[in-house]
Amino acid sequence: MTDEDDIQTDVQDANGAPAESEQSDAKPEAEIEEGEGEAKTKTEDEGSEDRADDDADEEDDRPKRRRSGTERLKRQIAELRAELDRRSTSAGGQDSGISVDIGPEPKEEDFKDDFFAYERAKTVYEMRKAAAEDRAKEAQREIHARQQEHYRQLGEEYSDREKEVRQHLKDYDAVVTSFKGEVSNAVKLLIVESDKGPHLTYYLAKHPEKVRELNGMTERAAAREIGRLESRLSLPTPNKQTKAPPPGTSLKGGAAPKSPESDLDAWLKKTYG
Predict the structure, then answer these.
(1) Is 235 in contact with 168 (CB distance < 8 Å)?
(2) Are 200 and 229 in contact (CB under 8 A)?
(3) Which pLDDT tens digit goes with each residue over 40-91?
(4) Residue 145 lies in a domain
(5) What DSSP designation does 29 have?
(6) Fewer CB atoms < 10 Å away: N or C end of the chain?
(7) Taking the mean position of all CA atoms in its chain, how far away is CA 115?
(8) Is residue 265 predicted with pLDDT exceeding 70?
(9) Number of structural domains in the chain
C-alpha cells in the first residue's frame, strides 16, 4: 500500500465516508474559504458590526503575525550561532575563538628580559580574555532565550492549527493519544514547524512504521520526507448547503392573453353582426 492510499484510508476512517467521494466533493485545502455566508443588511447597529468585523480581522491576522515573529527569531538565532561558530573554528574550541578577538597570549621570551613589560602585557591579555569570555557566555544566554521564545511561538501556532484539524478529523485526539512510539527531537521539530503539523501528527500516529523510518534518517532526509508527506495530506471539506433563495416558479403554458384589438373586434361583431 502506498502513502497516498494510506492517507486516503486515514481520511475515510476519520470521517466515516470513502475518501474518494470526499475528495471529489471537497475543495482542495488551499481553496478552503472561511467566513462564507449571507450578506447582512446594515441597520442602526452598523457601527457595532463594523467594529466586530475589525476585531475578527485582527483575530485572523494574529497567526500571521506570530508566524512572522517566529521566522524573525529563527533568523536571529541562526545569525548568533554563525557568529559563535566563526569565532571558534580556527584551531578548536572556545579558547581559539577568543584568541581571534584578542590575539595570542603573550610569551615571556618575546620581551627580551623585560619582565615588567611582560607582566603588563599578560595582565592586559587576561583582562581582555575575561571580557571576551563574558561576551561569549552572554551570546549563549541570548541564543537560549531566543530559542525558548521561538519554541513558545511554535507551540501557539501548532495549537491554532490543531483546532482547525479537530473540526475535520473527529477522532484526532483518540488517534494521537493512542500512539505509544518514540519520536526523535529532530522529527518533532520538523513536525511542529510544519504548516500541516497536526495533520502530520495524526497520520504518523496511525503509521508508526513511518515514524521509525523517519527516526532513522538524517535530518535533511527526514525534512525531505516530511515535505513529501505534506504534499499528499489534505483535509476533507464538508459540502456546504447553499443559502440562496429557491428559484422562482417557471412560467407554464396556457392561453395567450387577449389584446385590446381582439376585444374591440369581438364587441363590434356582437353589436353589428
Answers:
(1) yes
(2) yes
(3) 333 344 455 555 555 555 555 555 555 666 677 677 767 766 766 665 554 4
(4) yes
(5) G
(6) C
(7) 64
(8) no
(9) 2
